[in-house]
Design brief:
This protein is mainly beta and 101 residues long. Helix content is 7%, strand content 45%. The chain is built from 1 helix and 7 strands; from the N terminus they run βββαββββ. A hairpin with a 4-residue loop joins β5 and β6.
């Protein structure tokens, strides 16, 4: 999965290089399918990844929107520095993310 929001990355365990990235608009079932997959974060769609890792889990987070509760996903990611610098093609990007299988 590729994303380009750089302000949603938080270190949660320095000893294990584990980070959290959220608040993604991803269906819960899709989030389950993304466990053990690679996650790349980009500052823009055209830049190389500044962060890369393996998704090791997630949790759901509810936010208040316009009168509705909107569920978002926060991924727990094990950082893999060798994945940083990855460049992806421009095809397939949605509003803020791209999933490649």
């Amino acid at each position: 999965m590729y994303g380009y929001r750089s302000n949603n990355l938080t270190l949660v365990c320095k000893e294990r290089d584990e980070w959290e990235s959220g608040f993604w608009r991803v269906a819960r079932q899709k989030a389950f399918e993304l466990i053990d997959c690679q996650l790349f974060l980009h500052r823009s769609k055209k830049e190389p990844a500044f962060f890369g890792g393996i998704i090791i889990g997630f949790y759901c987070f509810d936010t208040q929107g316009t009168g509705k509760i909107k569920e978002r996903i926060v991924f727990r990611v094990k950082q893999v520095s060798e994945l940083e610098g990855n460049v992806t093609s421009q095809e397939g990007w949605g509003q803020e993310q791209k999933t490649v299988y």
